[in-house]
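Hey, I was hoping to borrow your eyes for a little while. No rush at all, and the record is pasted right below.
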Amino acid sequence: MANILVVEDDFDIAKGIGEYLEIFDHELDFAYTGRQALSMISDNDYDLVLLDINLPHISGYDLCQSLLIEGLASLPVIMMSANQSEADILKGFESGAWDYLKKPFSYAELNARMTVALSKVKVTQSTGIQVKGFKLDIKAHLLTDNKGRSLQLHSIGYTLVKLMMESSPHPVASSTLIDTLWPDELPQSNPLRANIYSLRKQIKDTFQQDIIHNVKGVGYKFDVEI
């Protein structure tokens, strides 16, 4: 059983999803605008968000990106949309979505994707974030590899690694990283590039490989070549 927020402005679609998920004894809340969804997420602890993109007031893309800025990147979001172009799907992942489900979809496929997302949350909560032989200890801010090497991360470096590992193998937009790290002011220079450079050097010195990669025109991603 999970506590799930369904964000969908089409009442019939929301009702159909709700009736199906109730079979599995999930606790369901419903939001019909982006603004309403943000308020409900702020006031409640959800295990999963099912998110439409074309919403009144705030789009699903902007809502999802707001979760990253508010430090809620660990909250799994499955986007649901009739927008099916590659650009739309990539934008969804760049905004912080964990998965992207094309409308129309079967309830069985929705349930399967929800099961995967909720399983990933349980792994993260119990063991930290793991990506291809690397593990980030959320409490200790320690990045380790499967060879026993470790790097103590501080402040900005930890936030960068956490956001990218949560999104891996998909990139995180540069604008999202900047808004997360410097939400109250626009830096005079380009501190993101300088901090990425410093982080990559620390990682290379510790693990003898590059795992932070630039995605031209988008941002940065955490990916390990095996």
